[in-house]
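Students often ask why we bother encoding 3D structure as a string. The short answer is that it lets us treat folding as translation between two languages. Here is a chain of 715 residues written in the first language.
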Amino acid sequence: MKRFSLFPLRAIPLNLLYVLVFLLIPLTTQAQSPIWPDSIPWWKANNLRVIQTNLPAYEAETLEVDSLIADLKSLSANTLIINAGGIMAFYPTRLEYQYTNPYMKDDMLGDVISRCHENGIRVIVRFDFSRAHKSIFDKQPDWFYLSPEGKRIVNDDMYVISINAPYEQEQLFNIVEEVIDRYPIDGIFINMPGYATKNAYTGEYHGIDQNPYDAKRFADYSDGMKLPLTEDYGDPVFTKYQEFKQYTSDDLIRRVHELVKSKNAQIAICTYSEKFVDIIRHESQTNSLPYWPYNASDNVNNTIHSYPDHIVSNASIQQISFQSRYNAVEPEEVAIRLYENIANGSGLDMSIMGDFREYEDERNFDTYREIYALHKKYEPYFGNYTSPAKVAVIAPGSWPSGDAAQEYRGVQLMLKESHIQFDIVEKSQIAHLEDQLKAYKLLILPEITNLDGESLDALGRINKSGTNLIATNRSLSAHPEVLESLFGAKIKQLDHEGSGFYLNPADKKLFSRFGQQQLLFWKFNLGLYDFTAADEVKLAIYTPGRPGPPEKIGGHEPSGHYAVGIKKHAKSSAILLPINLGKLYYLHGYEQHKNILLDLIEYSYPEVNDLIVTDAHPRVEAILQEYALNTPENYGTESREGMLLHLVNLTGFSGNTYFSPLPVYQTKFRIRTDFRPSKIWSMIDGEEIAFSYEEGHTSFEVSKLIDYEGIVLER
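And here it is in the second language, the structure alphabet:
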């Protein structure tokens, strides 16, 4: 089979050639990649440029190590993730219960690791213990998933295992230990850990695992309970089972951590959870509608601020879906993901199926090469950030879905389009990060329905210390006493269909954006609450009118309920909107609904717009960071050497298609800085930018934005 260069010269468009030539020209502002000492764990440098090659079995026979190395170097990669074991061994295993890839030749994995290390590329080996081969199933059927109907989850000849059976509780450790003892690896990545209820690759739901090992361990954990048969969140047995799943998942990764670190403390552990790992992996992928163009910002911002002691690596998944692995998402979408990664403090990470040779869809390769080269060129300016934001959004989790995800994303969308800087913190971390959260002027809780007792207590103290609260829809509905004490609210009807109702922004002083409107249409949930104990009520709810022809409409009357309640505390305010405000904007995008939130933010935190004032297009994502050069000398210090304004151009996103972004010209910025910059310059053209400084604010203009710009404000 013919092999060829990843980027043959004749295939590169002329405009890209100009970009590549520019990237090779030394600039006075070009940074040199620092050399990190062995005394600092290598991943703590937070300078990852990861390429993951998910090899199909047959590519173990055809993979050419030298061409792989050439491609990785061409892409400026410094870390490779590659298959090792679990589903099948990509190395010559000696273990009875590790199925060997039938296509494997010689010691492919050993050759890859050796050649990568010779070229300064670290290797994280990939394990997937979610499935095992039929030959193992035939020997030990009790190790595998069993549905309530007695069925298995099978993909071809691979069977889904049970987490509490001996395959994961014993053989997993034998496999990991064998690879560590055999190869000088830099890290391990565990894919798809945890419990299965459906076939992840087809979407077919099978139910809660009834494996006998699961049944016994759950009975021991719960003092005799039987495994639940259905996912009923009102069932105390299922609630206990959820707790059991978390405990057993944490226990497994804890034991993996003990094994790996006993072998070599410099081996990084990477997976999707946060406990007992060094690198939290996340994924940006396109598998549901509507598309979420801020997915990478969401993932990285959330993880970095929820788990500040960890490194996050957010992978751009090349494939469109599990059923369409060899068709890539659009290059413009990939560019947005990668730029958002570095803007929010992650390195770069991308995942493709197989090797790069004669790939079925190469459209993204030039994008990878360009952005990875930019990161390498300015590596010390990335990855050592402190956010200046004074607004935080509380996230419903790491992988939100359903109504909660739509409400959460809608609120983010409102803030992003308004260029309001904000950090994201998961709801589970409120109590752990109480002191950090007290530093914010405003917390926004979108559809955060319930919190544990420690988090509720911490939220009360945070509010009492002077941090304002804005909560939407069913937030804290599981805690009526907290709703009343914080917001002065009592639930009369939690779920109430709002279609046809109107809201009246009568207070034009507060709702300053509604000078020409008296009624705002509504859809989705419109909770009916008693705000008697609140200090103020706003947005009177008007009843639906008579449906029919124009001659018969009308009849909208005050219902006696309000969509906003405001409770004033000694040092702060707490505002509740028991309405699906975020979801409505996320799905329909009427700016009037965004303006409700913006007016209330300015009411509770009048200085919110002082950090950044700009005339930038709403689809220009602006992410402002305080930075220190990411060098060993600055590791663990609180030094700050300036600010870095990242601009990501999303004007090409149409809602369901990613086009090339429109160039944006002469964009003005006024940034609040506590220093007069010594110099401001552009990462894209290397040129200095003229600026003025007055009373703690720096003003400048960005002459042209194509897809990305990094504006460095040096102290």
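Translate back mentally: Residues 389-606 form a domain with the Rossmann fold fold (CATH 3.40.50.880). Keep this in mind for the problem set.
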